[in-house]
Structure formats: C-alpha cells, structure tokens
Model the fold of this input.
Amino acid sequence: MYKIAVIGGDGTGPEVVREGLKVLKSVSNKFDIKFEFTDFDFGGARYLKTGETVPESAIAELRQFDAIYLGAIGHPDVKPGILETGILLKLRFALDQYINLRPIKLYPNVETPLANKGPDEIDFIVVRENTEGLYCSIGGFLKKGTPDEVATQEMINTRKGVERCIRYAFELTRKRNKEKTLTLCAKTNVLTYAHDLWWRAFQEVSTEYSDIKPEYAHVDATTMWMVKNPEWFDVIVTTNMFGDIITDLGAMIQGGMGIAAGGNINPEGVSMFEPIGGSAPKYTNKNVINPLAAIFAGQMMLDVLGETKAALAVEASAVKVISQMKSMAAGKMGFSTSEIGDMVADGI
Ligand code: IPM
Ligand code: MN
Done:
C-alpha cells in the first residue's frame, strides 16, 4: 500500500492531476498495487485566504507519505516568488529532494522544433542538483534603493551535496544501460572555485565506475549541442541553476510543456513528482490542457517506487494515445484533457 500525498495546486494543476490519478487507479486494478491518496490544498488560493504557504506541521505530515504527486504552483494574483519559494522550493529543501530528474525523450508522432531529429536522436536524461547552488536564498542588499546599491546572492556547493548528486547520476547511467556516458555540464573555465569542486568530485567518483564514460561540456556549449546534436547525450549531471535552464530547452525539443515531467527525488526519503509546465492560468477549467506531462510524472513516481512493470505499462499506453493525437499543445490535441486521461487509463 502506497500512501500518496496529492497537491493539485493552482490553475490547471488540479485538472491534470485528476487525469494522472485516473491512470494510477487503472494501474492499481491491473497490477494489484494499492494506493491511498490524500489531498493537500497548498497553493495560491489557500495563500490568498490564509497567508499560509506550507506550515511546518504539514512538512512533518508529508514525511509520513511514500511520495507526493504535485500539479502546479503559481497564481496570477500572488507576487512572483512567494509560492515558488514558500511551497515548491520549501518542499524540495525540507524533504531534502536533492535530485531533480528530467527525462528528455521525444516519442513518435510528437513534433520537435529540431529539423532532421527524431526519437532516435532525442533520448537523454538530465540529473539536476536540487538543493544547493544559487537556490539557497543566501545573500542580501547593501544601500538598497540608492545609486550605490549592492545585491549579492551566494552560490553554495558542498562536497557532500555535489558528490551525492554525481554518484546518483553514475548509478542512473549504469542502470539505464544505453550509451553508458555521463556528461558533467558546468562552467569550469569561469567558476574556477565552485566548479573546480564539481570537476574534482566528478573525476574521483568516475574511478569507481569504469563501465561509464565520463564526459564534460560547458553549459553554453551544452545548449548548443542539445540543439545541434542531442544524440550525443545519454545522461547529463549539472548544477541547480544550469539544470533549470537546460531542462526548459530540453522540454521544448521533446515536444513542449504538455509532455515534460520531472521528479524531485530523495532516494532515501519522500520524493515529489510534477509536470513541469506550470499552472497555465489561461487554460484553467477549459478541459484543453495536455495531461500527459502529469501522467508521465505518475509514471516516474511508479518507477521510483520500484513498480517498474506498471511504469512501463503507463508509458506504453501513453505512447499509443500520442499516436492518435494531433498536437501536444493545449486546445490543439484533437481530444479534451479528460478524454486523453480516459484513453491512457483504458489502455493500461
Ligand atoms: C522548475 C521551476 C522552479 C525552479 C521555479 C518555479 C522555482 O522553474 O521546477 O524548474 O526554478 O526550479
Ligand atoms: Mn524551471
């Protein structure tokens, strides 16, 4: 029995999560896996009503679950930053979800903006460090609001944090068993202290994985290769901020936000799975948003929980549904949100 915390969140979040749950319920019948779903109402609406994002007591409660299934966080009436730091980043940090896993996989019949590239060329995975780097909110202002203003924002890199992320990436590359190539994406030519630490940790850990080929690419070159030769990548490991940027590029080459999923993973604790597209307020309650990203997030959750067969069944069913869709874009799919959910659930 898996206890799953469900945070529908804002905008289209609850709609796509509803379809994801439909698919998980179908999985439950077919594979004899039991789930118990518990709803949490964190998001913009609750914040506007109560001024609360995620209370400390809720963090303790969430620790008792096997996983968290998240829709989207972001509300047009809330100032940018409040919900992101108060909910999404707070959960990532408090639950020590130190890996952000983003598969970049182009499925057949999905349109990519890259000319002459198809599913054989676009199939890699980004392992993004998820609890350090530029995301720690350490910094401040001096002489704020004056012409002499100074603002600092510190980039944190701990040997422990970097090494556990790199180690996870090597293990994943081995388990994935494809090209057996792990690329470190950093900026060692400029960040000569911070990324020297990454470089040394990468070299040292790589000696324990003689079956994996270690590669290196600067982040600027990485964006270039992702467009020009995405087939060069198998697994990429990178820092929090660089990972944020390159995975949006990755989402675009795999067919857009309608399909891109991510996992915030604590391999020893409670992980959280989400479609990465955001709350898309203008499509809310129109039954037009693409639920596949949420469905693939559910697939990733099954995989991380160890339900490999069920995860593969979700992927196979989704791939069949994709073959019938006109587009991955909201309102242009040829089907409604709930129809896509029904089709994937039935296909299980
Ligand atoms: C993501 C998002 C978040 C991030 C924001 C919403 C804080 O862009 O999950 O990639 O930067 O990590
Ligand atoms: Mn992002």
